[in-house]
């Protein structure tokens, strides 16, 4: 972001760069920078809160009055908090199915409800659309059972497939929740509480243990997993 | 999943050093044409998704709202943007500021790049200048840059 700020200023466009990681924005030193201690993925701080977003923009625009390079800190921090999202998962409806497959079918109405309300901004469908999530999970079941990933029928680059599955579940979480969840709580819910999330981590571990190249499996889940 | 942990993993990533800092003085905000440039890999559904290590950019139509995220990093919260696009690309807020007269106008086009790049040479030398030239031709005076 800061690199683009330098480039755009050199082309005669005034910029204000928002940054969520303090050391990064200090080191990259954009001409005008506003460090906002907000969760990654939420550079305007609070989804669904226009007044808060306006306060961030108001501070950013104030920096345009500076007569030289400037880096300031937004006055209010937003943390990811410790919200434990408790979306009601669908009960098992078919004991003959793998739990993740049964689960993903049961979540479909919540997913559709969220897409209708919010749109598909999470972009499930880049390689796996909602109809394809079930087959993608079937391929991960094979990987978790030690089938080499290239032979398991994974329908794309594993990281992208994993993102699409995560996006499906997080949209379902939006459909099940009565509020916009705190940052990362949807991700925690997916990996810690759902059969699909657990399966994805099992497949990722199996790939790591099989000696697959690190970039192939690592980006299937956040780096602290 | 702790945001602090993920930030700590990313905070020591090298950044290009600019020996001279360009600094442009904008017109009055109430007369300025404002655009958003984001590194969140946003694109319209009918545009190409971002490839891994994609150093190009996508031109976003400011009248549309069907933005999707094409970022390859799993290391950010995505449910915020999924529920409210203004969390990353605050165009509804800019439209409100324009209607109040706080800013002159909202640009018709906005740009999206892919962040999380380890080699920024191509963006610095090629796609960055190309994006700046495009916005400059459209009369953009001020850019707000948002990360993911």
Question: How far is the first residue's CA from the last residue's CA of chain A?
Answer: 26 Å
Please tally the helical runs of chain B, counting DSSP H or I stretches of 4 or more residues: 4
The arrangement of helices and strands of chain A along the chain is HEHEHEHHHHHHH
Shape of chain A: globular
| Percent in strands of chain A | 5-15%
Overall pLDDT of chain A:
94
What are the salient characteristics of this protein?
heterodimer, A: 225 residues, mainly alpha, 2 domains, three-stranded parallel sheet, 10 helices, globular, B: 148 residues, alpha/beta, five-stranded mixed sheet, two-stranded antiparallel ribbon, 7 strands, 27% helix, 20% strand
Gist?
The complex is a heterodimer of chains A (225) and B (148). Chain A has 225 residues and is mainly alpha-helical.
Task: Please render the helix and strand layout as text.
The complex is a heterodimer of chains A (225) and B (148).
Chain A: H1 2-10, E1 14-19, H2 22-28, E2 32-35, H3 50-62, E3 70-73, H4 99-106, H5 108-118, H6 133-144, H7 158-176, H8 185-193, H9 195-209, H10 214-218
Parallel strand pairs in A: 1-2, 2-3
Chain B: H1 3-10, E1 33-38, E2 42-44, E3 57-61, E4 67-69, H2 79-83, H3 91-100, E5 105-106, E6 109-113, H4 121-137, E7 142-146
Parallel strand pairs in B: 1-5, 1-6, 1-7
Antiparallel strand pairs in B: 2-4, 3-6
Give an overview in words.
The complex is a heterodimer of chains A (225) and B (148). Chain A has 225 residues and is mainly alpha-helical. Chain A is built from ten helices and three strands, in the order αβαβαβααααααα. The longest helix of chain A is centred in the C-terminal third of the chain and has 19 residues. The model of chain A has no long low-confidence stretch (mean pLDDT 94). With 148 residues, chain B is an alpha/beta fold. Chain B has one domain. Chain B is built from four helices and seven strands, in the order αββββααββαβ. In chain B, the strands form two sheets. In chain B, strands 1, 3, 5, 6 and 7 form a five-stranded mixed beta sheet that branches. Chains A and B meet through α1, β1, α2, α3 and α7 of A and α1, β4, α2, α3 and α4 of B. β1 of chain A pairs parallel with β7 of chain B.
């Amino acid at each position: 972001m800061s690199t683009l700020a330098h480039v755009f200023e050199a082309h005669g466009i005034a910029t204000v760069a928002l940054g969520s990681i303090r050391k990064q924005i200090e080191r990259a030193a954009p001409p005008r920078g506003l460090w906002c201690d907000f969760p990654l993925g939420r550079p305007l701080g609070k989804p669904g809160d226009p007044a808060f977003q306006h306060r961030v923009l108001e501070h950013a625009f104030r920096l345009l009055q500076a007569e030289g390079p400037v880096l300031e800190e937004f006055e209010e921090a937003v943390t990811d908090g410790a919200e434990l999202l408790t979306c009601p998962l669908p009960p098992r409806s078919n004991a003959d199915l793998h739990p993740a497959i049964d689960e993903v079918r049961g979540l479909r109405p919540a997913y559709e409800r969220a897409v209708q309300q919010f749109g598909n901004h999470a972009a499930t469908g880049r390689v796996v659309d909602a109809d394809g999530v079930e087959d993608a999970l079937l391929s991960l079941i094979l990987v978790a059972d030690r089938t080499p990933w290239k032979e398991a029928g994974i329908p794309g680059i594993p990281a992208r497939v994993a993102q699409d599955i995560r996006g499906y579940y997080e949209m379902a979480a939006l459909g099940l929740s009565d509020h916009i969840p705190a940052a990362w709580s949807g991700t925690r819910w997916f990996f810690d509480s759902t059969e699909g999330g657990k399966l994805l981590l099992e497949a990722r571990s199996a790939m790591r243990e099989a000696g697959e190249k690190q970039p192939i499996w690592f980006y299937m889940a956040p780096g602290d997993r | 999943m702790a945001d602090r942990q993920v930030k700590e993993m990313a905070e020591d990533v090298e950044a290009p050093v600019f020996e001279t800092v360009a600094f442009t003085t904008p017109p009055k905000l109430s007369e300025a044409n404002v655009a958003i440039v984001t590194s969140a890999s946003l694109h319209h559904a009918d545009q190409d998704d971002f490839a891994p290590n994609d150093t190009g950019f996508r031109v976003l139509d400011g009248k549309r709202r069907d933005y999707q995220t094409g970022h390859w990093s799993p290391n950010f919260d995505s449910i915020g943007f999924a529920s409210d696009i203004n969390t990353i690309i605050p165009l509804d807020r800019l439209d409100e500021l324009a209607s109040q007269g706080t800013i002159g106008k909202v640009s018709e086009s906005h740009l999206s790049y892919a962040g999380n790049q380890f080699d920024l040479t191509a963006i610095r030398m090629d796609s960055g200048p190309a994006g700046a030239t495009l916005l400059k031709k459209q009369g953009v005076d001020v850019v707000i840059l948002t990360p993911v």
